[in-house]
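We examine the record.
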Amino acid sequence: MDARAELMIRYAGEFWPEVIERASGSWLTTTDGRRVLDFTSGQICATIGHNHPRIAAAIERSLNDAVHLNSTMLSTPVLDLAERLVGTLPEGLDRVMLLSTGGEANEAALRMAKLATGGFEVLALTRSWHGMTAGGQSVTFAAGRQGHGPTQPGIFALPAPYAYRCPVRHCDGTCDRTCLEVGFDHYDQQTTGAPAAVIAEPVLSAGGIIVPPPGYFARLTELAHERGMLVILDEAQTGFGRLGTMYGLDQLGITPDFITLSKTLGGGLPISAVVTSAEIEQAAHERGLLYYTSHQSDPLPAAAALAVLEVVEEDDLANRARERGERLEMRLRELAERHESIGEVRGLGLLWGVELVKDRETKEPALELGDAVTKNCEFAGLCMNIVRGGAGGSSACLRIAPPLTVSEDEIDTAAEILDESLAKAEASA
């Protein structure tokens, strides 16, 4: 590792042991010339692969036109992106705010929900991840809650629909939504009478690729609206084709009150969006909405995001994610047949989790094995990460999320590396 890495604050454990020189498609190249297959899509942001030429062209145009403006000024790329976004969403989601990160987008949505409802209480799922800013961290239960004092008041946890390890000790392998009913019952006993919002991901990614059962979000929306709460759907990791449809909400049978977008929107550049209804925007505006940041509505990232949307739609990447996801699922289930340490394989599209256990009967998480597998993959040229549960409860789940442009050969290569890495780790355990 470059000695200058000592200058960096370690913000999430240790850094990757090599310096990256270049990135293209599904591949990274280190300064030593080693190639690494990236099955994390960067930070699950490189939707259409690293350094896509359409994004590069959009950036180049912006360098000639406008990179940054006063946040009250609107540019053509921003207006084009807002129009294109609204055109991809259900009727009624037609007001857009453009920001820089997913945490910011969730902060803005929460603030608008509180203004529109007059309440301040927010429900979020255990094992959720909604950002590292103060409000985003308050509704993030997967990790990072300890050591820095209290979070915002009025936050309540709903048990995640984690059927493999049912949080209410009720289900065994198939969630029947009892956890959801229990969670709202608990909220009813604790509320001070100031409901505002429920925030949730279509698939809980950082919590271990937890896929809620059919009908879950319809019931969540019903329970929320009965209490006067607005529903915020955080599609940071699931938007723009990753689950095999344009959005996760396309599979849920609901239209949320807010949708927040980030990661997959920029294709590698920092941009996020809040989309809501004209009615909610009007209510928040009348009650004094102020959410004003330095890089709000910047033209350069908006131009890049527009290029991402164009590529996703023109190349039918949502359908490609579904087809490539079927191949990835097949290869992972083949691994599960050969490795007793794999307790469960779950996911949708090109977002998959492989749960590692010491014993399939007890389901005890194989934490050390998981660390060894990811390290072996690193040495063999495959980048992916492991979800350890953290504040959300112990687990050892490999998270796999390649770019939507991934090829069948690259999926096969990743499966072979994972197979060898598992075997090596199991032999050393």
